[in-house]
Amino acid sequence: MNMMTPWDLNGWEFAALAFAALLVGFSKTAVSGANTVSLAIFAAVLPARASTGILLPILIAGDVLAVLTYRRHAHWPTLWRLFPAVAAGVVAGTLFLVWADDGIVRISIGVILLLMAGVTVWRRRTAAADREPDGVSTRAGRAKARSYGVLGGFTTMVANAGGPVMSMYLLSAGFRKLGFLGTSAFFFLIVNTSKLPFSAGLGLIDADSLLLDAALVLFVVPGALLGRWAVDRINQRLFERLVIAATVVGGVQLLVP
């Protein structure tokens, strides 16, 4: 697949992608789910399918920075419970990409994100405000992990849009801010890295896409630093509202032609 290089973009297009890369860094260390805006920018500037391959290494760079920042706060029982279901979702997403066009992909992911946001808002209103993460050893905890894991793997493979789905899972499970960020940091570093061979096999990553990534990845670092500065100034309730709002915005953007 013939990808774009930095020299194929005009100044405004490169500036938009640079801002999207900065927003990736911010989302990884502050408001997870906000990178759905980055996804929309990349899809608007670049061919939609190609944009997913170009964005993936930028997301991985943000994941590395997030792990370095929040590595002590990961909840590993939750991660181990999620990974098998996520693997199934990634395989399903790869098969979906073989035949689905951009329109079907956008509509499917947009609907899923809005449904997840609605379910999470309802659950947060009926749950106790201060509780530990849901026990993953219970039947309900296992069922929730499997369902969100498959959806997360599917959406992250087809559109790099797994962040909002997993954000909804972690919020619904009662994770506090730092546990949320630490768990999602390790989750996406592992999942996004595992997607590289699938994306390369589909022709979504090549030498040209990596050249553009090299020019854009520098903007991830200041975004991550800004997010780390901001997260200490955001209280838990505002944090949850920002995550849900970012998910809704991302879902709506995917549904708009």
UniProtKB/TrEMBL annotation:
Transmembrane feature ranges: 49-70, 82-99, 105-122, 210-231, 238-256
Principal location: membrane
Superkingdom of source: Bacteria
Location in the cell: Cell membrane
Signal peptide: none
Keyword annotations: Cell membrane, Membrane, Transmembrane, Transmembrane helix, Transport
InterPro entries: TM_pro_TauE-like, TSUP
Annotated membrane topology: Multi-pass membrane protein
Family to which this protein belongs: Belongs to the 4-toluene sulfonate uptake permease (TSUP) (TC 2.A.102) family.
Protein known as: Probable membrane transporter protein
Phylogenetic placement of the source organism: Bacteria, Bacillati, Actinomycetota, Actinomycetes, Kitasatosporales
